[in-house]
Model the fold of this input.
Amino acid sequence: MEHPKFIITKNGHFRLGMVHLHKDLLKSGEVCLGGGYYQFDYTSNRIILSRSSYDYGEPRWHLLETLKVPSVYKGLRLVYYYDDGQEFDISQQLKLEYYD
Done:
């Protein structure tokens, strides 16, 4: 069964999609720095990220300075919620670079 999952790569790419496994979001030769699950909150223009990947663990945001985000998500704020409820506002903490 497919679920809404995301990953971040060592090169700073943010990728999400409906997949069976987090590794399905990786391209050949990429290294994953963690992942989790996502949901869109259109009311507050956010992508809410949470939980962790069974295979790769929690996203290691601290290893990135820039997050490369598909341009289709421009204008949406990215927020990650740790299991303890702590919020990490990615849009404020990391430089976002959009690509096509």
